[in-house]
Amino acid sequence: MRSILYIILLVIFQSCASQAKPVLIDSEMETNVKENLSYYLYYPEDYEEEPEKNFPILLFLHGGGESGDSLVTVKRNGPPKLIVQGKKFPFLILAPQNPNAKKWWNTRAVKQLLDSIVGNNRIDKKRIYLTGLSRGGGAAWELAVQYPDTFAAMAVVCGMAPLPYASWINRKMPMWVFHGEKDKSVPFSESENMVAKLKEMGYEVIFTRYPNVGHSAWIKAYETDALYDWFMNQELK
């Protein structure tokens, strides 16, 4: 009787095992991802006065606190804040808003917006600059990796910086990195380690560290007039 029961169980087990074979199929699906990006676009004073001149443009990406559906919040920090305060810049500034309060920047959508602005304005394509703070700083690193032939220079303020990105950035693109040593949101080590890696690989990097500053390093960083002079001296190589 036991031998008969054993045979029955063995047959059942083999039957179940035969039904559990892994299957690998080939297929495909067309995806369509859309993003509605509101934005500010700043024009320098002499843009209309010099109709034959092509101008540089700076793409600015804000931090997580300015994400959402209220465009006015983009004016809280960075170049848009300085514009409201009366500062004048010698280049166009494109400042889009990430509509997703809890999500990462859609960098592909940002690049499409940038391309559209460049294509419909008098832009010097060899002088497209990139900057971002916090979550926008992380997105700036990502854009530099995804589109290494687009940007002439980049400035990142307290942004997350995955070390593998170092191998994919345009080796001829100058970079300026800012970070507060007391940052509790994005550790100072993110920028410190990335800068060390980039310098080890021969990149041109300026590193400004603020000893007694937390996550709001962007206040000092974007009030650094030398930053904008530095941008104006860069050209895509």
TrEMBL record:
Domain Dienelactone hydrolase positions: 114-216
The residues the entry assigns to the signal sequence are: 1-20
This protein is called Dienelactone hydrolase family protein
Recite the UniProt keywords alphabetically: Hydrolase, Signal
The answer on whether this UniProt entry bears the keyword Signal reads yes
Q: Which PROSITE patterns match?
A: PROKAR_LIPOPROTEIN
Q: Which Gene3D superfamilies match?
A: alpha/beta hydrolase
Membrane-crossing ranges are none
| Keyword Ligase (UniProt) | no
Pfam families reported in the protein's UniProt record = DLH
Quote one Gene Ontology molecular function term: hydrolase activity
Q: Which InterPro entries match?
A: AB_hydrolase_fold, Dienelactn_hydro, Plant_Biomass_Hydrol_Est
Q: Which residues form a coiled coil?
A: none
What SUPFAM superfamilies has UniProt attached to this entry?
A: alpha/beta-Hydrolases
| Highest taxon of source | Bacteria
What is the organism of origin for this protein? Maribacter ulvicola
